Amino acid sequence: MEHLRLNVSLLKKRVPNLTSAARSIGLRPATVSNLCTGKIPVGRAEVKTIVALASLAKCSLDELILRDESVEMIETKIKVLDLFAPIAKGGTVGLVARPGMGQLVIIDELFRNLKKEGYVTMLLKPDGEHPELNEMIEEVDIIANSIEEAYEKVKETEQQKDIVFATDREHVLTGEIFDLQEKLKAEGINNVTTFLVDLKGEVVDENIPFGPLETLWYFDADLVARNKYPAVNPIYSTSTVLEGAHLDESHVNIQQRAQKLLRRYRELRSLVSVKGMEGIPTSELETYQRGERLEAYLTQPFFVAEPFSGRKGEKVGLADTLKDVQSILNGSLDGASVESLNNIGKITN
After folding, report:
1. Angle formed by the axes of helices 285-297 and 318-330, nearest 10°
2. Could you give all domains of the chain from N- to C-terminal order, each with its CATH number?
3. Which Pfam families does the UniProt record give (predicted)?
4. Torsion of CA 72, 75, 79, 80, to 10 degrees
5. Rounded to an integer, what distance in angstroms lies between the CA atom of residue 56 and that of residue 317?
6. How far does Cα 1 stand from its chain's mean position?
């Protein structure tokens, strides 16, 4: 079947406030969000929904729907991200988190890892004083203080070098970030991958955070409360790269099996919190224990956190992540303790 996906860039440009616009014509914001990230394939969407989006964007269906477009994944070496919500190179990543959930630590670690791969790191500073950015700035090659300066500095960068670019939501609300993206693409500059953070945490309460995105990382208050870092929710976080035409079939299969396990594990944890372990049916004890091991494995010590945690940072390649997760799903590690899987890199065979 021909691979289809929405033209997210066009929607960003034509319908900046997609949440309100979608709701005003009877579309569910969550449905639109899932279509934009690829969580709901275009081929499974109702025709009337696609037609309504084309009407909002004032474009034809051929303009709204992209066919056979190649999307390249950026491997971060961060297990939970690469498995559940990988980055589309040249796309836009939105981080949904309240302050203190670790979103800046992830960006800091990501910048550190990608700099070693030859990427140029760049930050568009928000207005005012933000001391929480100070440590992250150590991993930044280029700091811009305005959209105009960011545009000029991107143009000055060697065109063969890929750029990872972070900015706060204040520059998203004005529409300037999406205008910048369109301006760069119009000049043939497609090597900038954008990360949108929200220092105030306001997007947590919105249906379509930041507007259309290629990748969404949704941070989880429950994981934070239990010190499970990085606290990225593996069920709600998603990416267009997860569509079958872009990733190896085994990756998609393992990702879907892992999500299914974690979804049920979370339901069982709710029972345990009320009734204790006796509340879990005997038939589902294995599911609970494997989910517990998988959740522990998805934690990871970061290099940028070494001075605070006292634990050596770890990078894990995607191939190792897939192999390890498959071992947990298949029961090969049923004899391992949860503690032995917590805050490690790859599993040593």
Report:
1. 160
2. 4-67 (1.10.260.40), 73-240 (3.40.50.300), 249-341 (1.10.1140.10)
3. ATP-synt_VA_C
4. -40
5. 41
6. 27
pTM equals: 0.86
Contacts of 23 by beta carbon, 8 Å cutoff, 6+ apart: 29, 207
Contact 265, 295 (CB under 8 A): yes
Between 32-41, 147-156, 159-168, 289-298, the lowest mean confidence (pLDDT) is in: 32-41
Neighbours of 265 (CB within 10 A): 19
Confidence of residue 2 (pLDDT cuts 50, 70, 90): very low
How confident is the model over 292-304, as a mean pLDDT?
A: 97
Angle between helices 29-37 and 47-57 (to 10 degrees): 90
Nearest to 5 by CA among 28, 36, 30: 36
Tell whether the model's pLDDT for residue 347 goes beyond 70. Answer: yes
Assess contact for 234 and 116: CB atoms under 8 A: no
Torsion angle defined by CA atoms of residues 173, 174, 179 and 180, in that order, rounded to the nearest 10 degrees? -90
CA dihedral 22, 28, 30, 35 (to 10 degrees): -70
- What are the tens digits of pLDDT across the range 113-172? 999 999 999 999 988 888 888 888 888 999 999 999 999 999 998 878 999 999 999 888
d(CA 196, CA 172): 8
What's the number of CA atoms in the CB half-sphere (13 Å) around residue 131?
0
134 or 335, higher pLDDT: 335
Using DSSP, how many helices (H) and how many strands (E) does the chain show?
17, 11
| pLDDT band at residue 16 using 50, 70 and 90 as cut-offs | confident
Closest CA to 133 of 165, 108, 161, 159: 108
Scan for tokens 């599911």, then name that residue. Answer: 287
Q: Which helix (H) or strand (E) holds 217?
A: strand 215-218
**Measured on CA atoms in the order 266, 270, 271, 272, is the torsion positive or negative?**
positive
- In this prediction, residues 80-95 reach a mean pLDDT of 95
